[in-house]
Amino acid sequence: MTAKHSYRPVEKREPLSGGRIWIVVGLLSVALLSILVRLFQLQISEYTTYKILASDQHEVQAQLVPKRGTIYLRDRFDGSLHPVVKDRETWQIYSVRREIKDATSTAEALAPLLDLPADRILFQMMYATSSYQVLSKDVPMEKAETIRSGLYPGIGTSKGPTRYYPEEGLGGQVFGFVGTNDGNQRVGKYGLEGSYNEELAGMHGTLLIEKDGVGRRMSMGTTELQKARDGSDLVLTLDRAMQYEACRHATNAVKEYQAESASIVVMDPETGAVWAMCSAPDFDPANYGKIDSISVLNNLPTFDQYEPGSIFKSITMAAGIEDGKISPNTTYVDPGEEKIDDFTVRNSDKVAHGVQTMTEVLTKSLNTGTIFVQRLLGKDTFRKYVDQFGFGAKTGVGIGPEAEGDIRPLDKKGAIFAATASYGQGISVTQIQTLTAFAALANGGRLMHPFLVKEIVHPDGSKQVTEPKVVRNVISKRTARLVAGMMVTVVEAGHGKRAGVPGYYVAGKTGTAQVSDPRGGYSQDATIGSFAGFAPSENPRFVMLVTVVKPKTVGWAESSAAPVFGDMAKFILSTLQVPPERPIQEIVQTPLPPLSVSGTSPIIPSP
Predict the structure, then answer these.
(1) pTM beyond 0.85, yes or no
(2) Residue 550 lies in a domain
(3) Which of 66, 67, 204, 588 is 20 to 30 Å from 482 at the Cα level?
């Protein structure tokens, strides 16, 4: 039997046409090109990004977190820069929430190592907004090594920046401090750190990663890295030696006079550059979390408003002379007291001195004398000069928050408001306003724009330099010289003797102001003593304001602010190497009358 075979016809395949071949070649070329492009993207254009993604958390932070700028003081003699606020690398302890095994026991174990309460650590690890949290900064190396041993899952260590203050005793209120915001980013608060936070902080970088619908990074996705831009440095106008002495003298004044606070501000009258600005009590910006009251964070020379008292009489005299209403030798008859509206205004010594010159008005600090000048000027003209001297407006010194003061009482009806303002009561000012106004008396009548930051140095090396700026001319050189001469008499023969410096002519004015009571009227047992002045009087090298708030051991400014001014002035003149103008003779201190509360009350209701 013959086997049967079945045959299937062989199909003939037609050769690929030229068009189809090119389509295949094109697809392969596109695929190859895509691979090459991706390889170039991965290995060249996005190399840094993927290197960061493959590194640890610290490297990511280093690329995305900017370096905060440094704050410098420039040496007066050799021009060298000295850092007073800077970043330094320290050990930090951080937590990653998803990796923590037992949060409670971990927090309890870390508490003694970090010197923090366990409940606070637990909250940071488990309930803060971000899963990555810095638990502590500036941790000693030995404790960081203990934590790095691996006994605490979810807890890691890294080196990170913290703010460092190489020189102690230079004033925390001026510098401020660096804290963190809700996004765990460092941010400057108060003082210069807050006012110049944008310049100091720089700009954070960004890392953009394209992900799929379930949150995984796409292998062919786009990644973009924008590196951080470092912050700029600040070079201040503060003189390192003067700033230290100002802080030391303010601290000593609080202790010696048992005062609520004391402040010292020093300025170059020719430029407006602030050479010293310090108050006590102060705070340590490296340990701002340990303060007792948030009020200590405010910079008193710019933040506090207060009634200036008799130092304002110098401003009134300058207005009267400039307007042609008086001269230093103009006389009036001092009645000792005057009835204005429903009030009786008295001199602080309750004495009627008879015929007195305007110079004697300043020397004896007679309230009725400045009222006499204010009446000659008229209310509107007097207010114009108060405004021109810069009161009632922020100076723009560059450190916040800054108050405006309040001269609105001069707009009220009634003669009493302008009368009391003529000797510094009923209106409020700031220390920086007062200092700037007295600088105009010292420099020939120019109201200068005060400033604390001389240079902003950007990361690329470019600089933004602050140049001296005249806000306006307030009085003539002649008026300024005449008022300066009257103020010299205050120090030579009046209430300002203890502000004098042997060998020099010092121009200045005391002021003992009452403290307003929130319930109305004035406190019966609280005063603010101040002394404003400059030296040498013929060619002033500095202008200074000393303020002592609520001293308990003394009542008059000549017993508190004046001697502090004298000690600081002696130091400044020595630092500036100003040669003496006359033979050096020790100043003889005369005993002061006891403080009479009723005697300091310039306004006493009529019986």
Answers:
(1) no
(2) yes
(3) 588
